[in-house]
Design a protein that fits this description.
The chain is α/β, with parallel strands linked by helices. It has a single domain, classed as Alkaline Phosphatase, subunit A (3-Layer(aba) Sandwich). The protein is about 25% helix and about 15% strand. Strands 4-3-7-1-9-12-2-13 form an eight-stranded mixed sheet, sandwiched between helices. A four-stranded antiparallel sheet has the order 14-15-16-17, with helices on one face. The relative contact order is 0.18. Bound molecules: calcium ion (CA) (2 copies). The site of one calcium ion (CA) has 5 residues, from loops.
Length: about 500
């Protein structure tokens, strides 16, 4: 057929199809945040007991798994603020969960990722937790970043009852647990309140994250006025309390739970410049030890991760069956890690590996499905802003501090060894290269250094910082850490409206 056509007709057809391709719409983006998800996901290998068949299948069918991805900070607020603004907390002063990027002088006028996409022709929409939620005296609803999207909904809110209504659930009898301080023991309010779990007498379809996931699927039948879309979906588990339907607990028989390893005396080599031990066992670890409930806590987290995987599975299925299956980039990220006993700690907000490493997967049709599936390149969630801009053909915001790793996505086996930084709190940061983690803390006028060879010592038991053999390694890594820390920006309670 082709050889019967005159050459100029063939040329015309080729030119037309090339220009149609060039004029084709940019890729859509589905941007999925999972709150407090660590590397206990099958393909990330953080815990072989994890049951995440949907994420694993998603990875095995064309998403790229970043084995060395880190968060810019180790609690929700500053990690998300850094990712969304493209600037580290040591640059902006947005540290801790009580500073809102919307009030900080350095960040309040920056375009966040969804705003950048809207500014460049995208339709942005969101449900669930993407921005950290802050008090807002002008509204009883709080500031959840509603202002950053063209459309923001809370699909499980009361006003949607009927279509998306959320019910209050009861617990399966005898499964509700609240770990508290010992009588008379002083503890900060959050610690005393937050460590809770229980098996819900509910179907997954009735619960918040499933409803949010279903909202995302429902949007995939829309046209968005013919614009490409940027859809942000926030999944709230496995954040505490670990209340998920009992079927997910049933997947993990309690007597089969294996606990993460700890080494007695592990913290004794973390010392300040006077040789005084500067780390101690965390209160939640001590309470769980006292109550004999380590296995129950680990099981509750595993059950919550299995629940998240179930919800994500519904998004993957909905996307595969939609008209957007072949022109949508999917990014899945955890906002920081979480300890389940490692280094005698439960929770986040430490400078150690378990708090800093995050799961990150990116699927780009036509690109990652041709590739090798896993990358060992060093990347950070702060790199997502420029990377997604780059992948979608948007200009890179000159305010971004991260680095686009588009090239790595196209070629996951290439060398990508840019050391990357995590700022845990003011005056405490850590840097990762391909072999070492180096932590420098000058908090409270005390200098505490830690160096771990996480390749040889993945549980980070041997602090090498005071071993003279590693002086050169430390000097080299220290250059990547912040030379100054911006002062803490305005605390929520001091914000005037
Ligand atoms: Ca979080
Ligand atoms: Ca140690």
């Amino acid at each position: 057929m082709l050889k019967l056509m005159p050459l100029r007709v063939i040329c015309l057809i080729l030119i037309c199809s090339a220009s149609l391709f060039a004029a084709g719409k940019p890729m859509n983006v589905i941007f999925i945040a999972v709150d407090d998800l660590n590397d206990w996901v099958g393909v990330f290998g953080g815990n072989p007991q994890a049951q995440t068949p949907n994420i694993d299948k998603f990875a095995n069918q064309g998403a790229l798994v970043f084995e060395k991805a880190f968060s810019p900070a180790t609690v929700c607020g500053p990690s998300r603020s850094a990712l969304l603004t493209g600037k580290y907390s040591h640059t902006t002063g947005v540290y801790g969960n009580d500073t809102n990027l919307r009030h900080a002088p350095i960040t309040k006028n920056l375009d966040t990722i969804p705003q950048w996409f809207s500014r460049h022709g995208y339709y942005s929409l969101s449900a669930g937790k993407i921005f950290h939620k802050h008090q807002d005296k002008t509204s009883d609803k709080g500031d959840e970043g509603q202002w950053a999207f063209d459309e923001w909904v809370n699909p499980s809110a009361k006003e949607h009852k009927g279509k998306w209504g959320r019910n209050k659930f009861s617990f399966k009898e005898g499964t509700k647990v609240h770990i508290k301080p010992a009588p008379g023991e002083k503890a900060v309010a959050y610690s005393a309140k937050a460590l809770q779990w229980g098996e819900l007498a509910a179907k997954p379809e009735e619960t918040k994250d499933y409803i949010t996931s279903q909202w995302a699927v429902d949007q995939l039948s829309r046209n968005f006025d013919d614009k490409p879309f940027f859809m942000a979906v926030g999944i709230s588990k496995p954040h505490l309390p670990w209340y998920v339907p009992s079927q997910f607990y049933d997947q993990f028989p309690l007597d089969e739970i294996v606990l993460p390893k700890v080494k007695e005396g592990d913290l004794d080599d973390i010392v300040d410049s006077k040789g005084k031990v500067a780390a101690k066992k965390h209160v939640w670890w001590k309470w769980l030890e006292r109550e004999g409930k380590h296995k129950e806590a680990v099981r509750a987290y595993l059950a919550s991760v299995a629940y998240v995987d179930h919800c994500l599975g519904s998004i993957f299925k909905g996307l595969n069956e939609s008209k957007y299956a072949d022109n949508t980039i999917v990014v899945i990220w955890g906002d920081h890690g979480w300890h389940l006993g490692e280094k005698f700690k439960y929770g986040k907000a430490t400078p150690w590996m378990e708090s800093c490493r995050v799961p990150l997967l990116i699927r780009m049709p036509g690109v990652t499905d041709q590739g090798v599936g896993k990358s060992k390149g060093l990347v950070n969630l702060i790199d997502l802003y420029p990377t997604l801009s780059d992948l979608c053909g948007l200009p890179i915001n000159p305010e971004n501090e991260g680095r686009s790793f588009k090239e790595l996505i196209y070629n996951p086996k290439m060398e990508w060894n840019y050391p990357t930084v995590v700022t845990d709190v003011k005056d405490q940061s850590t840097v990762f290269d391909q072999q070492y983690q180096y932590i420098r803390s000058t908090k409270f006028n005390k200098k505490v250094l830690q160096l771990y060879d996480y390749v040889k010592d993945p549980l980070e038991w041997n602090n090498l910082a005071n071993n003279p053999e590693y002086k050169g390694v430390i000097e080299k890594l220290d250059q990547h850490l912040p030379s100054k820390y911006e002062a803490m920006s305005i605390h929520n309670k001091n914000v005037k409206h």
